[in-house]
Amino acid sequence: MASAQDIKLPAGALAHQVSLSTSPSAVLHSPLSSFGTSIPRAAAASVSAKQLKPFATEDVKILLLENVNQTGRDVLAGQGYQVEFLKTSLPEDELIEKIRDVHVIGIRSKTKLTARVLKEARNLIVIGCFCIGTNQVDLKYAADHGIAVFNSPFSNSRSVAELVIAEIVVLARQLGDRSNEMHNGTWNKVSNKCWEIRGKTLGIIGYGHIGSQLSVLAEAMGMNVIYYDVVNLMAMGTTRQVATLEDLLGEADFVTCHVPELPETENMIGQKQFEHMKTGSYLINASRGSVVDIPALVQAMRSGKVAGAALDVYPNEPAGNGDYFTNDLNSWAADLRGLKNIILTPHIGGSTEEAQSAIGVEVSQALVKYVNEGTTQGAVNLPEVALRSLTMDQPNCARVIYIHQNIPGVLRKVNEILGDHNVDKQMTDSRDDVAYLMADISDVDTVMLKDLYERLEGLSSRIMTRILY
Ligand SMILES: NC(=O)c1ccc[n+]([C@@H]2O[C@H](COP(=O)([O-])OP(=O)(O)OC[C@H]3O[C@@H](n4cnc5c(N)ncnc54)[C@H](O)[C@@H]3O)[C@@H](O)[C@H]2O)c1
Q: Domain named ACT: which ranges (predicted)?
């Protein structure tokens, strides 16, 4: 195994690029110790895969805010990185002070990474949002400065699917109403219009991560499952895709929405769709608040067309916990609260301990893959690029990452520079104004790498250059 390799760049060469260590003694570094540590996915892929590192591990500085889950902290600390962990978010001025120093920052939804904050983040290469949403980050500014952003969109799919199963039973048996009555001292033992769910048809709108998980659970409960999706998708079990939304609405006893928030999905369940639904059917929405026209739902429930509903998401949701679910927030809130057999929950579909733990693992592993290997798979603001791993029998190989403006003629110039070396593999992709190039080159020594690095940095199209080996 090769010993640790250093390339010394001229003083100041690192000041405005953020990919290389700020340590004076370990600038481009593949330390011995790093070969033994494990990145689960990479290690599983091949025992002989060479683990790349841009730094001496102890030089990678990570700031984790907002009580990021222990699972995520463990993955990052296990890499030997310097991890600073804070339970809360920080006021902007303190955040700016702290962010100047770090290569990686992990946040949840409260930390706002605006252009003003990111401008100060001179060493930052990647942001991990340990949550679903990323609108707390200025994604465009980050991309334009070569800073990748990762999140965890699917770690809570199972939690949502389980909640929906519970809601189907609760609605079918009017459990919410019975429970409320008992809380008010009323004994009301009824079976009228209370149903088993076995043999009933569940109609899933949007058969993605959540919809498909849900279908497996619903079939296990004895339900027939149909789904409607704009994409032709492989059915799980004996579920069946239907051609149109109307087909689904006309056949389903329970209709549940699992589509993304898009212009096409805004109010996709409104008055016309309620008319297509079976009389006495049920509606569940744990997707996005814009998907269901709520005044139309109120009408459909008052008329008896819809026998029950469960809503977890709303067009306007308060920023914090408190007595906010009023007409001040949404003009129909009182109407909704006055209905029978309706379950109203405060966007908790994905809120479980398991989901938090899975988010910790997923985001931290994406950060490790990005820091160590340059892989952008799953990034929300950069093109998704990955190359298969370098192997241990390729000791004099290096991975060149060149993030650049997406303008004509760049590849020709980059390939002129790389052309002096043996390029084993190369991949490039672009997204809006930014392009991401990754190339593995062989038979290079540290002097050549230093020269190559400086020539790439000298191109006017450069956003960021990283060399891993
Ligand atoms: N309540 C919660 O706490 C919670 C938690 C996680 C996700 N969500 C929301 O649940 C929804 C589904 O999440 P997911 O992870 O399953 O998403 P996904 O991207 O895996 O699946 C969405 C599916 O909807 C389909 N689709 C898109 N437009 C459609 C249309 N017009 N008609 C029919 N199908 C359409 C897509 O093809 C895809 O198969 C999202 O809106 C997400 O934000 C809510």
A: 399-469
Q: Give how many domains the chain has, as a whole number.
A: 2
pLDDT mean over 321-350: 96
Q: Looking at 289, 324, 344, which one is the last position of a domain?
A: 344
Determine if ligand 1 sits within 6 Å of the CB of residue 347. Answer: yes
**Could you confirm whether 317 is annotated as catalytic?**
yes
Structure tokens that stand for 106 in this block = 């992990």
* One domain for residues 330 and 384: no
Last residue of a domain, one of 311, 344, 377: 344
**Cβ 346 under 6 angstroms from ligand 1:** no
Residue 458: CB partners within 8 Å, gap ≥ 6?
A: none
pLDDT, tens digit, 9 for 90 and up, residues 216-265:
999 999 999 999 999 999 999 999 999 999 999 999 999 999 999 999 99
Q: What share of the chain is helix, strand, coil (3-state, %, to 5)?
A: 35, 20, 50
> Is residue 227 within a helix (H) or strand (E), and if so which, with residue range?
strand 224-228
Q: Is 154 in the pocket of ligand 1 (CB under 6 A)?
A: yes
Specify whether 181 is catalytic: no
pTM: 0.81
Cβ(162) to ligand 1 under 6 A?
no
* Ligand 1 atom nearest to 349, measured from its CA: 3
Domain match, 461 and 400 both: yes
